[in-house]
Amino acid sequence: MKRLLKCLTIILLIAAFAAPTAFAGAGDTAANSAAASGGTKNASSGASSSAAESTAVTSQPKLMVYAYSLDCDYLSAGDTGTLSVSVYNTSDSRQIRNLKMSFSVDDHEIIPVEMGTKYLKRIKATGWYDWQFDIMALEKATSGVHPATVTMEYEDSDGNAYTATDTLIITVRQSVILSYDEPALDARLTQGDTPTFSMNLMNTGKSTIYNALLTFDIPGISNGGSVLVGTIEAGESNVGTTNLRVDTDTIGKVDGKVTLSYEDDFGQKYTKELPLSTTVEKKVVAEAPVEMKEESKLSVKHIAIIAVISAVALLVIILMIVKAVKKRREQEEDEKRL
Q1: pLDDT band at 5 (very low <50, low <70, confident <90, very high)
Q2: Are 191 and 250 in contact (CB under 8 A)?
Q3: Is the pTM of this model over 0.70?
Q4: Where would I find the H helices in the chain?
Q5: Closest CA to 194 of 227, 226, 224
Q6: Apex CA 14: angle with CA 9 and CA 17, to 5°?
Q7: How many CB atoms lie within 10 A of CB 203?
Q8: How far apart are CA 252 and CA 282, in angstroms?
Q9: Region for residue 225 given its phi and psi (left: phi exceeds 0; alpha: psi -120 to 50; beta: otherwise)
Q10: Edge-to-edge strands of the sheet including 80-89?
C-alpha cells in the first residue's frame, strides 16, 4: 500500500513538472508563429519600399529655366546689364546635387562680365534658385536679337549625371547716327525760278537706316511732293535731290523747313526739322526803249553811208594812182625820143 502511494506521488510530481514545460512550448510556438507572421508583413513592406525606390531611381529629377529677365529693355552696344535667370527643380520627390550653370552666346557678341558660371551644392525637390549676373554687349555687336544658352549640369541623389539646356533671347541695339550736309537754298531767287535742291545723308552709325525721307514746307515754293532717299547701310551715304519751283506771286523773305525722318532696325522712327530760308525777288522783263530802237536804225543807216563813202574814196584813189602811173610812162617815152 505504501509502495502504491509512493508511485502515485512520483507520477503526480512528474506530471506537475511536465505541464508548465508543455504550456511554455505551446506559447513559444505561438510567439514564433506571430513573429513569422510579422516578419512576412515587414518583408512585404520592405519589398514595396524597394519597388518605390526603384521607380524613383528611374524618375529623373529635371531642372529647367522657368523665367528670366534683363534689368533694361535691351542692351546697347558697349553697355552692360544685369540678367536674372530662375531655375526650377520639377521633381516633387528628388533633390539635385552638384549643379553647375553656365551662360554662353554662339556669336560671342554678348559676354558675361565675370566667369559666367555658377555652382550650387543642391536644390531640393520643387525648389528653385535665382541666378543673377552681369552681361555686356560688345561694341561691334549686331543690332537685333541674340539667342543665348544656359547649360545646367547636375546629379541626382544616386550620383547619376544629367545635362539640361534652355535658350534665352537678348536684344541688342546699335547706335543710330545719321549725319548730313547742312541744307540750304540760294540766297536770292526770282519769281518763277526752278532751283535744284540736294541734300547728302550719311549713315555714320553701325545699324541700317530705313525709309529716309525729306519733306518740304516752304511757303511760296513747291517741290511736287516728298523725296524718298530710302535705305542707307552703315558706313554709306545717299543723296536726296528734287526740283523746286518759286511761285510767280511770291516775293520777299521766305522762311521754311525741311523735315528729315528715318527708322532703325526695330521700326522706331526719328525726325528732325531743319530750317530753310531765301529771298524771292520780282522778275523783271527787259524791253528795249523806242528811242534805242530808232537809234539802232539810225546807226545802221550811218554805217551804210560810211560804207558807200569809203568805197567811192577808194575808187577815186585807185583812179588817181592809175592816172599817175600812166602820166609817168608818157614822160619816160618823151625823154627817150629826145
Answers
A1: very low
A2: yes
A3: no
A4: 2-58, 290-337
A5: 224
A6: 125
A7: 22
A8: 8
A9: left
A10: 63-70, 80-89, 128-137, 110-112
- Rounded to whole angstroms, how far apart are CA atoms 149 and 76? 20
Please say whether the beta carbons of 242 and 214 come within 8 A: yes
pLDDT tens, 80-136? 999 999 999 999 999 999 999 999 999 999 999 998 999 999 999 999 999 999 999
Count of alpha carbons within 13 angstroms of residue 84, beta-carbon side: 9
Residue 40 C-alpha cell reads as 512576412
What is the grid cell recorded at 11?
507520477
Terminal Cα-to-Cα distance of the chain (whole angstroms): 250
Taking the CB of residue 240, how many other CB atoms lie within 10 A of it?
21
| Residue 61, CA distances (Å) to 88, 96, 120, 121, 149 in order | 10, 7, 15, 15, 20
User: Cα 8 to the chain's mean position, in Å?
Assistant: 118
112 three-class SS: strand
- The mean pLDDT of the chain is 81
Query: In the predicted model, is pLDDT for residue 304 greater than 80?
Result: no
**Lookup result for grid cell 535731290:** 241
